[in-house]
Amino acid sequence: KNEVEQSPQNLTAQEGEFITINCSYSVGISALHWLQQHPGGGIVSLFMLSSGKKKHGRLIATINIQEKHSSLHITASHPRDSAVYICAVVQGGSEKLVFGKGTKLTVNP
Amino acid sequence: DTAVSQTPKYLVTQMGNDKSIKCEQNLGHDTMYWYKQDSKKFLKIMFSYNNKELIINETVPNRFSPKSPDKAHLNLHINSLELGDSAVYFCASSQQQVAYEQYFGPGTRLTVT
User: Which residue in A43, A48, A95 is closest to B90 by CB distance?
Assistant: First the structure.
């Protein structure tokens, strides 16, 4: 079992829908990253958080350290949001990033 | 100006050859990384350097050798290439160590035939 589990693996939505992608982890962490990988392959950092909630435009990321769970929300989804979203955790006591397997999001017009 | 650049973007080579991938960042970051993304798109860290010093060396065959001539560059040299080395290799950097925002290069797609 991977130390970082994401759900769902694949998600198809209609434009305008509210999207939630979940990330659960089994190890102690010092921080969590949400990354976006475009269809062309490039990877962009969306958020880095260690507690609470962060918002950037239509994207919101939350983390619950006690429950070892994070969510990435996209409001008013758009076809350009179609990408793979990857959760990665910084294992406590190490400098190692451990990645989830990603959630492939497709937003249809 | 590209923040993290990698060369080449594509690399096709035969088994047994030795090849290098270069990475440069112009962000003034102290820490650089190499990640491997396999055919199932799963990312895994290979190496991490902080100020030219090796910090993380994951379970990677010793055919892979990173070299950091200065803190803006982290190159990856691979000896005796094998079919299983085919993957996309991403370089990244962060201001300090891994709990900081990561900036990724565009990736190098390595195909070993």
Answer: A43
